[in-house]
């Protein structure tokens, strides 16, 4: 009779193309999933209601998938350091399998779970699943982690990509008696998001679960990916994949995603189409680059990478920050983006760069304030991607161009030339003429009539002020090195 293996799901909420789950199924037919609602994560002040709602939907879908193949997904609401070993011991499991994660807390937690399992004589096995290439597979010539994206990409794209892992098509679950034992060991019914304290009233940006993610990938690769290089920059257009939440929670496997891009490449109708497909592949590489550097440099999660920004004299005006959060800065493109995120839990990537530049370079506010606010709102909030994006925009991260500053007006003129996006989200401006919305030169009388605020800062003045602060920081840093 097969011995039981527990598969501990975390960022891999699917039974298809799941490396660790496939490895466990190769070992035994008696295979049961488990997901742990970790209070240490849920009680953080960076958890978005939209994200928890999406996660619960993915877990509902995952439970259905397990049921269809003859097994179960158990739910724990406990510290996994105690909960996972206790459940494994109670069910006399031979082993616990799981996929690795790059985040600092996850690495510490997993080490503690490993130690607890070893003390009980329970085997464990770990795999890499959320990346096409594990951190140790992509190295510089000196064997180090890349800290610049372009050479990382050149290495990464030339590596053979793994094929999707075998799907779980059948398994044996727990007996009725074992299910009772699991309940005594802490297994609970899957709670709703509101029951956990996260009440998201708006429709989800993307339906949760593996089936919805597969459908979204297919739709994107059938059409939008062919024009992605151009259309991805226009927030009023449906030009992006909108798979970020599915990738964050692993509702779809990264090898499945890569295989779909290869199929699309083979069906590409022109050089432009193939260029667009590779542009999206580069975005997948950015995702892995940020995860690799977070794995190597966990201190990124709590501070800047570049020296001038470790002691940068941020202005940190609370009222200006609140105006930014609420989408009331008086800059239409910035306000449209913030309102989109507040209402949907998602923001177009071009707009993420615009609002991050505005917060750090115009308002001169610590990027960690914005990074945290994003995590409190985004359905796809991911530590590595969010931190990497904010450090890129703030010029505090691994970026050879340290003073990139976005002008809200020129960004609007390039990427929302008809002000469609602005009108969608800043509805009080819907009747203002396009040329004024795009330039940002809305008259005081029009602003008053619309109930729309005047700009809270002057972009040109703030740009000069930021550059002066930065140059002073560089000089101070150089002086300290020479002392």
Outline the structure in words:
With 483 residues, the protein is mostly helical. The protein has three domains: 1-130, 3-Layer(aba) Sandwich (Rossmann fold), CATH 3.40.50.620; 131-163 and 210-296, Serine Threonine Protein Phosphatase 5, Tetratricopeptide repeat; 307-482, Orthogonal Bundle (DNA Cyclobutane Dipyrimidine Photolyase, subunit A, domain 3), CATH 1.10.579.10. The chain is built from 22 helices and six strands. It has helices at 19-27, 39-42, 49-68, 80-90, 104-119, 149-157, 176-184, 210-222, 228-231, 244-249, 254-266, 271-296, 318-326, 332-344, 349-362, 367-377, 383-394, 408-415, 420-425, 434-439, 444-450, 459-482, and strands spanning 5-9, 31-36, 73-76, 95-99, 123-127, 187-188. A six-stranded mixed sheet has the order 5-4-1-2-3-6, with helices on both faces. Strand 4 (95-99), helix 5 and strand 5 form a beta-alpha-beta unit. Helix 6 (149-157) packs across helix 12 and helix 15 packs across helix 17 (383-394). The longest helix is centred in the middle third of the chain and has 26 residues, at 271-296. It is globular. The relative contact order is 0.11.
């Amino acid at each position: 009779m097969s011995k039981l293996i527990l598969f501990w799901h975390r960022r891999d909420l699917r039974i298809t193309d799941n490396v660790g789950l496939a490895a466990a199924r190769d070992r035994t037919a008696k295979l049961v999933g488990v997901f742990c609602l970790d209070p240490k994560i849920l009680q953080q002040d960076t958890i978005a209601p939209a994200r928890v709602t999406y996660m619960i939907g993915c877990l509902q879908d995952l439970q259905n998938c397990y049921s269809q193949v003859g097994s179960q997904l158990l739910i724990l609401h406990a510290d996994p350091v105690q909960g996972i070993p206790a459940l494994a011991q109670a069910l006399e499991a031979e082993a616990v399998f799981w996929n690795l994660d790059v985040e600092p807390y996850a690495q510490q937690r997993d080490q503690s779970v490993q130690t607890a399992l070893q003390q009980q004589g329970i085997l464990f096995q770990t795999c890499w699943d959320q990346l096409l290439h594990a951190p140790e597979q992509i190295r510089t010539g000196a064997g180090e982690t890349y800290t610049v994206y372009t050479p990382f990409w050149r290495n990464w794209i030339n590596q053979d990509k793994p094929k999707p892992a075998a799907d779980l098509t059948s398994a044996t679950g727990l007996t009725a008696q074992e299910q009772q034992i699991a309940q005594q060991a802490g297994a609970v019914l899957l709670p709703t998001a509101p029951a956990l304290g996260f009440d998201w009233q708006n429709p989800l940006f993307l339906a949760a679960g593996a089936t919805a993610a597969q459908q979204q990938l297919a739709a994107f690769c059938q059409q939008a990916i062919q024009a992605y290089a151009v259309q991805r920059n226009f927030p009023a257009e449906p030009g992006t994949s909108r798979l970020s939440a599915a990738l964050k929670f692993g509702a779809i496997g990264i090898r499945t995603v890569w295989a779909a891009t290869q199929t699309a490449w083979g069906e590409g109708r022109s050089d432009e189409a193939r260029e667009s497909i590779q542009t999206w592949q580069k975005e997948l590489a950015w995702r892995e680059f940020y995860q690799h550097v977070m794995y190597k440099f966990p201190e990124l999660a709590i501070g800047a990478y570049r020296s001038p920004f470790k002691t940068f004299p941020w202005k940190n005006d609370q009222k200006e920050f609140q105006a930014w959060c609420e989408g009331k800065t008086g800059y239409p493109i910035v306000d449209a983006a913030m309102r989109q995120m507040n209402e949907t839990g998602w923001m177009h990537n071009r707009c993420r760069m615009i609002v991050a530049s505005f917060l750090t370079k115009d308002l001169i506010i610590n990027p960690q304030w914005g990074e945290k606010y994003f995590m409190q709102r985004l359905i796809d909030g991911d530590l590595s991607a969010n931190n990497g994006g904010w450090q890129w925009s703030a010029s505090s991260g691994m970026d050879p161009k340290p003073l990139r500053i976005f002008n809200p007006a020129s960004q609007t003129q390039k990427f929302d030339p008809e002000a469609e996006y602005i009108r969608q989200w800043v509805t009080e401006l819907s009747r203002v003429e396009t040329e004024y919305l795009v330039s940002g030169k809305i008259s005081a009388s029009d602003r008053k009539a619309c109930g729309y605020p005047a700009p809270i800062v002057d972009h040109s003045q703030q740009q000069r002020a930021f550059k002066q602060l930065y140059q002073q920081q560089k000089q101070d840093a150089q002086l300290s090195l020479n002392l």
